[in-house]
Specification:
Layout: E1 10-13, E2 29-32, H1 43-62, E3 64-69, E4 76-82, H2 88-105, E5 112-115, E6 119-124, E7 136-141, H3 152-168, E8 174-180, E9 186-193, H4 199-210, H5 213-216, E10 223-227, E11 230-235
Parallel strand pairs: 1-7
Antiparallel strand pairs: 2-5, 3-4, 4-6, 5-6, 7-10, 8-9, 9-11, 10-11
Bound molecules: 2-acetamido-2-deoxy-beta-D-glucopyranose (2 copies).
Length: about 240
């Protein structure tokens, strides 16, 4: 990507008790670029609406879609991704909600991103497809610390790195797993990349996210680094939806 990055550096810190295991319907977070605005009824507005329609229609069937609509300066580039374990119905409803919400949260903004438990939606007038987003990043963590688990941070890092090795080699760039930490405690994890990335860029994106562990989640009972191109999550309780 050229030097004209429109999305400002936004590393955000989040304090949250991640106790509910159900798929939440509220957004986890959103970031509006606020650098360039478009006016209602403009070419960009029309292209963006076409883009949203395409994503809303196509994403639920495969869990991912990227698209670019329009020409030259007025092109709207975007993608939507559903979490690898959600059903088609939940994916559809998450993407529809994300489209409605991002319009409300970032009205007339030429670039924005919104995250939910079950999906991610991102668009921009700059073509970001295929490149790693290292600017939009959110940390979420459980404020409670672990106790009585030996080498928790190291084990969590190794666990997420193994998941990364699984994910970047898989067609969906997605992996989940669980691991016993001792006789009682089990670690549950999930990693995922947006599928516009090559497998090696997916690996790089997740490696970089995992390197944020000391900043985000040191000794925390649960943590996530959520970016525009990849994310990970770990918890001491099961949160992945098992497919029947
Ligand atoms: C774009 O619009 C938002 C919301 O109205 C405003 O806060 C922001 O300053 C505007 N940015 C520019 C570059 O005009
Ligand atoms: C967790 O550990 C950190 C660092 O030792 C400490 O500052 C914080 O207060 C602890 N949080 C809780 C909820 O006990």
């Amino acid at each position: 990507m050229s030097s004209s990055n429109l999305v400002p550096l936004s590393i955000l810190f989040f304090f949250t008790l991640l106790l509910q295991s159900a798929i939440g319907v509220d957004p986890l977070y959103h970031i509006c670029s606020s650098s360039f605005n478009y006016s209602s009824g403009s070419t960009y507005d029309k292209n963006l609406n076409t883009l949203f329609n395409q994503l809303g229609n196509k994403v639920p069937h495969t869990g991912f879609r990227q698209s670019s609509v329009g020409h030259t300066q007025e092109t709207a580039h975007g993608l939507a991704l559903c979490r690898g374990d959600v059903s088609t119905a939940d994916c559809k409803s998450c993407v529809s909600t994300a489209i409605a919400e991002i319009k409300k949260c970032c009205p007339n903004d030429k670039a924005a991103v919104i995250w939910y438990d079950a999906c991610l939606l991102r668009y921009s007038n700059v073509n970001f497809l295929g490149t790693i987003d290292s600017e939009n990043k959110v940390y979420l963590y459980n404020v409670q610390n672990v106790s009585g688990i030996e080498s928790f941070n190291g084990k969590t890092r190794d666990f997420l790195s193994r998941l990364t090795d699984k994910a970047y080699r898989s067609p969906k760039l997605f992996a989940t797993d669980e691991m016993s930490l001792n006789k009682i405690d089990k670690l549950y994890g999930l990693v995922q990349c947006t599928r516009d990335l090559s497998d090696l860029r997916c690996k790089k994106c997740l490696d970089d996210a995992i390197n944020e562990l000391p900043n985000c989640c040191d000794s925390k009972r649960g943590g996530r680094v959520i970016g525009g191109s990849c994310n990970f999550r770990y918890e001491l309780y099961p949160f992945v939806i098992s497919k029947k």
